[in-house]
Amino acid sequence: MTTVTTPVTTVTSPVLRTAYQKSVAEYWNNEKDPVNLRLGDVDGLYHHHYGLGDYDPSVLDGDEATRDARIVEELHRLESAQADVLLDHLGPVAPGQRLLDAGCGRGGSSIMANARFGCRVDGVSISQAQVDFANEQARKRGVDDRVRYHFRNMLDTGLPTGEFQGIWNNESTMYVDLDELFAEHARQLAFGGRYVVITGCSNDVTGGRSKAVSRIDEHYTCNIHPRSAYFKAMAANGLVPMTVLDLTPTAIPYWELRARSSLATGVEDPFLTAYREGSFHYLLIAADRI
């Protein structure tokens, strides 16, 4: 008797599913903004987020020929300080546990997390160029056995269920639907695991986004969510906020210094206007998976 074996076909969802996702991926695949690359060149940690804390005013003094280089180094210090604030809120992480950097950019925060906790870190991005760049940085640092980046959609990563002690989004939630995102994070987090997000969000109280917030959206091809949307989507997906910090006052100095650098892109004024008028907030939310 002949036995016919039917081959099993695994259907893999495409990483880029919509015209909008394709446009975002194209934007970041082609992005070579010096404000990201020159800052990362300072010490090889390439971030895609902004900075926190007061800047050292002495960088504006002294030799004009080296002034801009001093500003670049100080801006990078502030953005790495921001990543440290996020990592501070992941709680205790053991070397045998696993973390996920959702919307990892060029991967700087993942490398910082591995250096701090000694654990395995996965990063995901819909930009193949970012993934390739980040994996090369991990290889250069000799941590590519513990830090790996994947060309995947953070709304459906294909990564294991309940495997991660911590997950974070650092200024990447404005590109996705929050209910879909938090459902996927809740699936991947271990019971009692921690989720942390740092994001800009519009102020519900003002009754709509300001012109400055709309200009930020246009600049980055994103869709900034109102503050309330984060808490509604978390509540719907078993994520309970433990810490909520308004980082807006400590975000302003970064933008003031960046506006005085050669790296200014024109979006500095909308950020400063939106923060100062109160139509835009820079929040950290840390939530536990229940």
From TrEMBL:
The entry's keywords? Methyltransferase, Transferase
| GO molecular function annotations of the record | magnesium ion binding; S-adenosyl-L-methionine binding; S-adenosylmethionine-dependent methyltransferase activity
Record flagged with keyword Transferase:
yes
Q: Which residues form the Methyltransferase domain?
A: 100-193
Q: Name one Pfam family in it.
A: Methyltransf_25
Protein name stated in the entry:
Methyltransferase domain-containing protein
Which InterPro entries does its entry note?
Erg6_SMT_methyltransf, GPPMT_Stmyces, Methyltransf_25, SAM-dependent_MTases_sf
Biological process, per Gene Ontology: methylation
Entry keyword annotation includes Transferase: yes
Q: Which organism is it from?
A: Streptomyces thioluteus
Origin, by domain of life? Bacteria
